[in-house]
Structure formats: C-alpha cells, structure tokens
Amino acid sequence: MSLIDSFSHNKMWSNIFLFALLFSTYNNVAVQSFCVADLKGAQTPEGFLCKPPTSVKVDDFILSGLKPPTTPPSSNSSKITLTPAFVQQIPGLNGLGFAVARLDMDVGGVVPLHSHPDASEMLIIVRGTVTAGFIAADNSVFVKRLRSGDVMVLPQGLLHFQLNSGNGKALVHLAFSSSNPSTQLLDVALFGSNLNSDLITKTTLLDLSEVKKLKAVFGGSG
C-alpha cells in the first residue's frame, strides 16, 4: 500500500469513527433529554444523580419564588437578600449548565469580595444604582457604576463585588454558567475558618490583633 493509499485509508476510518461518535451522542441525547436531580441522593462532580423518569413532574422545572423576599435586606449586616434559583430550587436544572438568582440590596447594601470557582456570572440591573467590579488574574481592576438596564459580565473564578451606590433600594437579576454555582467569600475564608492566625498574619501582612478582631466578627478560630 502506497503512502497516499494509507493516508486515504486512515482518513476513511477517521471519518467513520467521527460519524459513529456523533451518532452515539445524538442517541444518548434522544434517549435522555434531561436529568432531574435526585436531591436526596449523592452529588457528583457532574451534578446530582437523576430521579427515575417515572417520578419526574412538571414542578421539577418550575420555581415561583423569585419574588420580593419575606426577610428584608435591612435585617442583616450586609443589607442584602439573595434569592437563588439553583438546582436545589429547580431540580430540572441539573446538568443544564445555568442558573439564576434575585439580589435585593438596601441602601448601603454590599456583596463583599468573593468568587465562583466554577461559574461565570452576569448582572442585570433591574432597579437602582449598583457599583460592581472584578480583579483579573494580572491584578487589573474593572469597576463600573451600573444603572437600570445595564448588564455586566463577571468572568469565572475571579474576585468580584457588588454594592448599592445609589440613594434607594436596588434590584439585580443574576445569571450563572452553572446549575449549582459555588461561592467563596474572601473574608469568611480567612476569618471565618480555623486557619491559624499566625499563618494569616504572615500571608496577609495584617497585625495579629487585627486578625483576632476579625475572627471574632466572622466566627473563626485558631
């Protein structure tokens, strides 16, 4: 067999393999169009296990709770209330790769520096004025004062924040590129954990007394 014939032969089998792979993928999608989360079962890195198809109901795909919160934002120190529509609230989101939430912010309300390790976020300002921003991997800072109708994207894994910078209440709709976005708050991670205070002083250059004070506020130890 010549080199050209060999190349053509291998290319033919590559095309057959690609076709078979695509056909297999199509069949899998056709057999199972969704995987409604079994919230009582174990959660895997890919999401929750699927409920038996016979137990799936239309309510698994619906949430009627993105309404004004019953607990006002002013009742907590951050002056915010987050109402999630994640897989725990809508089991039908399992494996679909997106979720939404409602963020109510009282005057002076703030979402402190935090990150979503496995999701990008989109802010949609519905009412009020919100200053939001993120810090890129090269420590570039991107901050913008947003008003009703503005949209801002916060890339996955980067530290970011939101604060109500207006004179009235603010309402923000959030969208995430994960059905179950995890969140890590910087202050809570440092001062709400049992990370040794001496290590925190050495890695943050804060005074030990200040670290102890912040740990008392956030409930940390060590």
UniProtKB/TrEMBL annotation:
N-terminal signal peptide: 1-31
Domain Cupin type-1: residue ranges: 64-212
Subcellular location, record wording: Secreted, Extracellular space, Apoplast
Listed SMART domains: Cupin_1
Binding site for Mn(2+): 114, 116, 121, 160
Positions with a binding annotation for oxalate: 116, 121
Chain segments annotated as coiled-coil in the UniProt record: none
Family: Belongs to the germin family.
Designated name of the protein: Germin-like protein
